[in-house]
Write a structure and sequence with these properties.
The chain is mainly β. The protein is about 0% helix and about 45% strand. It folds into 2 domains: about 350 residues, TolB, C-terminal domain (Neuraminidase); about 90 residues, Immunoglobulin-like, CATH 2.60.40.3080. It comes from Chryseobacterium herbae.
């Protein structure tokens, strides 16, 4: 028998439907009637901003499902392929600096398909976005391989670009295609970029469609051809092989090329492909089974995968999908600051067939616990070991004295009441049925902390 334990703040949900207690999460539909929500980002006020490929940037209230279109970019062209309104990022000091970065495809001179990166400005009075400035223009685009994601980290703006169906571009460092680009937030080229005067940060990419930070490491997901989808650790100036290398450096010609061209092998390669897409690194304690792991959206396999890295965060050593998360093709995944996870689909086959949705994965804490943790007491209690066999040890960092501990099930029903005095106590869990439970710790009449446990 094992348990998993973590601390959480109790939340109340509307129209909650619980799944079986074999999982400690539930899923609900937040918004429907969308057209391929490409990239989702969290705003400081708890809302979700997202692009849709036909040209809109919208803001979603994840609690009510209310949506506000902030701009519809008339210049966007889908071109019946992968293009359209794509990457999105908010300024790190948003809304004090109300800038919104976005990349999209358009037709120049009537028929020349291109990609650009622009900055919009948010006006709180009009609750709308307006064009502010251009960062880069005339990146090659095509019906396929326009993969564009944006990410801001340490006040640097990163952008992925696809090879636009031209295999001569990824190895050409004079081209911006098949690259991960890096800019200052004002659009200038950072002085420490690997190629002086160039936005190119890494090269040799085919069609990268996910980008996130994993601690201090930049990580991307990349579509392979009919083989070798990839997860890559991105380093400055490194070559990622395409089109000379597919996946690992494991064929004679690939080994020769890799040795001669500073190629960084992927952390993971999939053959057959799963059509990797949006990624995010999950760090919250709300779902400890996914904590410090990479979440990956799969289009082809219609799943969210949880990827575990080795201790050095160089190689993926295991992957599992999240059960009961199957909504068709999945385009993006967002780990929100409050620990909830949002998933966007990619099932619409035309702008007139808006069937895509955004879903929320949340913790189904029972409403009838009816309590809040006391902020100044929270996090004084810990539990170990995790996992455990038959007993867990509850420890109190402050050693304030007597505490009352209610053990309740997922419905809020009291199973037993315990009393703790001193710095620690042991709790016997051998008699519990498999499932999830809560320990409600009360001190001096106030609830100081809620611990969640799972017995398998």
């Amino acid at each position: 028998m094992m348990i998993k334990i973590y601390t959480l703040a109790i939340a109340v949900f509307i129209n909650v439907q619980l799944f079986a207690q074999a999982n400690d999460y539930s899923v609900r539909e937040v918004k429907s009637g969308l057209y391929i929500p490409w990239e989702m980002v969290s705003a400081p006020d708890g809302t979700i901003w997202f692009t849709q490929r036909h040209g809109s940037i919208s803001r979603l209230n994840p609690v009510t499902g209310a949506i506000k279109q902030l701009i519809f970019e008339q210049n966007v062209s889908i071109n019946n392929g992968e293009g359209g309104m794509l990457g999105l990022a908010l300024h790190p000091d948003f809304p004090n600096t109300p800038e919104v970065f976005c990349s999209y495809n358009y037709l120049a001179n009537g028929n020349d398909y291109r990609e650009k990166l622009v900055v919009y400005e948010y006006n709180a009075t009009t609750d709308a976005l307006t064009y502010k400035r251009l960062i880069v223009d005339f990146i090659d685009a095509a019906v396929i391989h326009n993969g564009s994601r944006l990410l801001i980290n340490n006040n640097m703006l990163y952008m992925t670009t696809g090879d636009a169906a031209d295999q001569s571009l990824p190895q050409n460092t004079s081209s911006l295609n098949g690259k991960i680009l890096r800019y200052n937030l004002d659009g200038t080229i950072p002085s420490d970029n690997p190629i002086p005067g160039s936005a190119v940060w890494s090269y040799g990419h085919r069609n990268p469609q996910g980008l996130t930070m994993m601690g201090t490491k930049l990580v991307s997901s990349e579509h392979g051809p009919s083989n070798d989808d990839e997860i890559n650790i991105i380093e400055a100036g490194r070559n990622y092989g395409w089109p000379n290398v597919e996946g690992y450096c494991n064929l004679p010609a690939e080994i020769t090329f890799c040795n001669a061209n500073n190629v960084y092998e992927p952390a993971k390669s999939w053959t057959p492909t799963i059509a990797v897409c949006g990624i995010d690194f999950y760090t919250h304690s709300l779902f400890p089974q996914w904590q410090n792991k990479l979440l990956l959206a799969s289009l082809k396999n219609q799943a969210i995968y949880v990827l575990t890295f080795d201790a050095n965060q160089n190689t993926i050593i295991s992957e599992v999908d999240i059960p009961q998360v199957s909504f068709g093709r999945i385009r993006d995944v967002l780990a929100a600051p409050n620990g909830k996870i949002y998933v966007s689909t990619s099932n619409s086959n035309s702008v007139n067939n808006k069937i895509d949705k955004i879903y929320e994965i949340y913790d189904p804490t029972p409403n009838n616990l009816d309590t809040d943790e006391t902020p100044n007491l929270k996090n004084n209690w810990t539990a170990s070991p995790v996992p455990a066999n038959n007993t867990i040890t509850i420890q109190n960092k402050s050693n304030r004295g007597i505490a009352e501990i209610d053990l309740v099930d997922m419905s809020g029903k009291l199973i037993k009441q315990l009393h703790s005095q001193g710095k620690q106590m042991q709790i016997d869990i051998t008699g519990l049925a498999a499932g999830f439970y809560y320990l409600k710790i009360k001190e001096n009449g106030s609830v100081s902390q809620i611990l969640k446990i799972q017995k398998l």
